[in-house]
Every structure is written in C-alpha cells, then in structure tokens.
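Study this chain:
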Amino acid sequence: MRRILLSTLLISYMGVQAQITITDADLTGGNTYNWTANNVYLLDGTVYLEAGGVLNIEAGTVIKGKAKNPGEAPSALIISRGAQINANGTAQAPIIFTAENDNLTGNLDETNRGLWGGVAILGYGRASKAGADSFQVEGIAGVEPRALMGGYNNADNSGTLRYVSIRYAGFEIGPGDELNGLTLGAVGSGTVLEHIEVFAGSDDGIEFFGGAPNLKYAIVAFCDDDAFDWDLGYRGKGQFWFGINAEDTGNQLFEVDGASPDAAAIWSNPTIFNATLIGSGANNTTNAKANHLLFRDATGGTLANSIIFDLNGKGLEVEDLGSGIDSYQRMIDDSLVIANSVWFAFKAGNTLDTAGFLLPTGGAGTDEDCSDLITHLAGNGNAVTNPGLVSVGRFANQMLDPRPDGTVNDITSGLAAYPNDPFFSQVAYKGAFEPNTNDWMRGWTTLDKHGYLANISSIVENASQGFQVLPNPANEVFTLQLDELPTEGTTLNLMDINGKVVVSMELNTQQTQVSVANLANGVYFAQINKDGALHTIKVVVTH
C-alpha cells in the first residue's frame, strides 16, 4: 500500500480521517492488507485484489469510488479467484462502499445512480457459459485474466461481507455487459454474505453468476435495472431478501436465468425463502419498465413464503418457448417451484389469470393461457390478498415500512415447510420482515440513515405525536389539532401510501381544517415537520 505522508499521519493522529488513494498497483497477490475506520479509502480505477491476497476491512470503514470520465475504466473493487475479502461490519458500524462525492449525510439520493463501478467477488464455483467452465465476468473491458470466474468448487471461500452498504454504483461497458452494485461470479458457499444493502445502482442490485453463495438479510433499493438477478448455474440459498423499485426507474424485481445455452448441463436451481419484493407502484405512470418476476432460460429454483406487492403492470412470467427445455418445463418437472407466497396490488389486476397479474410469454408457447401456471400457483399455496404492509414509500420522507401490520392471516398461516438446513431460520411468517417487530434494516442501512424508513404510529384514532387528527377515519374534512401553538415553519404534508404529497400547508394555528374531499378512499399519512423533527399519524379516508 502506498506510503502515507507525515502530514497525513499527523492529521489522522489529531482525529480527522485521512483519505488514502488506492490504485491497482497497491494490491498484489500473496499479501495481506488492513483497511481501518480511521481512514477513507478512495478507489482510483479498477482495483484487483489478486489471487493469494487478503483484504481485511474494519467495521465502520468507508471506501469511495473515484468518478471517471466516459471511456475510462470505472473505479471498482474486484476480488479475484483465490483472494479473500473480510469486510466485517456491525449494525452499529457498517462498512460503506460509496461514491467519491457522497458526504454520508444525505447529499445524494435514490436518483444518483452509477457514480462509480461497484464490488465484484469472483470464485472457483461451478458455472457454465457457451460450454466453458471458466470465463471473464461481465463488466470488465478487454481481456483481463484477473477477472476470470468459474471452476469446480461450489464450496469455495472468498471471505466475508457482513453489514455492508454499497451505494450509487454500477457501470456499463456495453449493452448486457455491466458491473452491478454487487457482482458474485462463481462464488462458493464457504463465503459468508449477511446484511448487505445495495442502494441506487445503475444496473442490477445483486447478480449471481453460477456458484453457490448463500445470502441472508439482503436489501436492493431503487436500482435502475433488476433488483436480484441470477444466471449460469447459480445454486445458492437465500432468506430475508428485500427489493423495492424507485418510482422513476427499475426493471424486474427478479430477472433470473438458468443456463447459457438453455439446455446446458449446469443450470440455476437456488432456494429462496422470505422475500419481500415491491415494484414501482401499481398507480405509477412515471416508470414504464417492467417490474414483474421473470423466470427464464430454463432456470429452476424455489421461491417460497414471500410477498410480491405494488407493481405497475403484471406480476409474474415463466418463460414458455413451446419446445425444448425452458422454465415452463422446469415448473412442470417440479424443478421450479413458486410456493406459499402472497401476491397483490398489480396495475393489470389482482386476479390469478392473464387478465390479471400473469404474463404469458407470447408466441407459440405451450401454456399461452397460463392454465398450467395457474394450477401450479393454486396447488402450491399461493394467495392473492393484501399483505397489509404498513407503508410503502420511495422517497426520503420517513414513509417506508414494509413490515406486515399483523392483521392478515395469510401472512402467518399456510407456510411452506423450510428445508432441514441450518442456514434457514424457521420463522412463522411470509416476507422478509416479522409483523410488528423491529425490523433488521434499522441502524446500518442507507434507507435508515437517510430518512427513508418510517416512524409511523399504528394508532389510527389518536397518537402521542404532538398532534391529533379528528375524526379519523375522515370523510370530507378532518381537523388537525396541535398540542401547542405552532412555531414558525411548522408544516403539514398529507401523503398517500406511496409517499407522494397530496396536501401541503403551513400551520399557523393550533386547529386547522384539512379537506380530503378530492382524495380517493384509502390510507394516508399526516406528517408534521415541527422544529426539524417529523411526526406522523396514519389517516384513513372514507367517503
């Protein structure tokens, strides 16, 4: 690692973080490097930790990616095959990978995507592409031996990522050739991946290429393309995955592929339990991209005990080519199982048919009316019902609470049996979050630190938030009653369940009449900004 100047050492000694620039020349194979929280590390260009190298990152450390001009190689960290990264953050001191211009206090938001390259981990796990079992990972220009992935060891160990937040990443070399927030290329099951967040990426959030990495407690929020993506023989396990699309962009929540070519002997067959997947909004007209779950290229796998909610079109497509091996055939063979999950809030309609949220592939498929898919979903315990999520918000206004509110029986009953495997927690609910319990996103995520997660009272009629809404439920108008005279700048925002402001006003008196006559029936949130603090009460409008 490059030598730090005496002045930098003095600054660090005085308690101010030093910034250390890391280039590709600074990490070599066979050496161990220790990055510590008293420094900020700036990746300048694509940096490889070569085979035999070990990178230990202390809890609380910040790593930034330097911005690059078009045509330059992106700033990114690539852990090559045979190297290990040990990034052991904690809920109190997460490890943050972010953009150079992130001041860590909220100057960037969900629209600032693709400001640097991202993180890629490569291993010796099994993968196959066009007959080759070892090949270069996507997102790296030219020929780069250190970017090879693949082999024969699905138990390979590339280290640990725990309590890691990756922000504003992603880089496109060309169409279909991108670095994601987190790229896992033929990573093995010996690698520990827990409590990982990818926030506002320009491509996919987390993409698996083959291998068998297991991932528990994962968040992908507001990425430009897909939330979760797998391909080329991925055989890992996952539990407690949360994906949410932004209002302005975001493609499939799952875009999952089996093999290349489709009939290859190595094909994807992972097992995923307890996902909560939220689209860009059933009533959203801003994002024209598809939001549904797409199973294709002969992928198998299991998705169970999950919640799929609030998509601006269809909800599910299982590719049906009409001949040869495809994901439809995997479903018929019980190698693709979608079980005991809750589906609701689709712009196309909340019915288990092609008029509702099922999307036929189109063309000469075997199951163009989706009758076999309907039989599969109905026979495997899926339910079309409102999961009762507390609040869905996509902006930094404390409106996101994806926990079920505990009132929906389908969330805690009719569960698929968990595998007899110590990886899986045997929980008694569907989705990534336990109803009415402090959620695991608190404390360490960008969503929490930058004000996306809600602080919403569950009391409808009244709340000890410094104000009341009467009557509640409201009909044409309600009275907002403050406990004391408002200070200058006290404002009310009334927001819908997606976090959009539908009424906004400054409050000058203790009692204010608020008209809701033009609002549709449903749940809203009255949020008061008083002396810089936000206080929120759930409001029900019914005419």
